[in-house]
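User: Hey, quick favor. My workstation is busy. Could you predict this chain's structure for me?
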Amino acid sequence: MASAQRALAGIPGGANKAISRALNRTARSVRTRAKREISHISGLKSSFINSKITVHHSTQYKLSAEIEARTRGIFLSQLPGARQTTRGISYRGGERTISVAHAYIAGGKSYMRRTASSVGLKPQGRYGLVGRLPVRYVWAPNLVVIFGSRKLLDYMDERAAEQWPKEIKHQVSYMLSMAG
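Assistant: No problem, here it is.
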């Protein structure tokens, strides 16, 4: 960053603007690569993951960009290849198939309410009774757990270290060409 500041010393606010732009482009690039990696690990669609990962952009006054993953749990039925089997639910978890015994795929909260009301019971909170069977929602691992894994964080650090020099060089040359 010091070299960018020296190169753009004659342009008012030029160094901060170039650094901010480079940080934002690097963060977006790292988010895209992380999204692809999470999609590969979990098997979820990239569009689903993209809506859960946000980039907090840098400004000229706040020279830092952050990538944040925020999400509630994911229903097992949202996972790719989730299907009902005689023993429960099975789904693809990365490279292998995972089974959850004694589980079944229901159509969500409205299905649970309709099923419970048909036998005269009222589900309460996350738990309820359908017939004589206790029912609870089964969640898959949260995206934040995958996003916060050491392997993925190291991967993102490598991508950022690879992308940052290219971006700052590009932004400095752009600012110099615009100045004159």
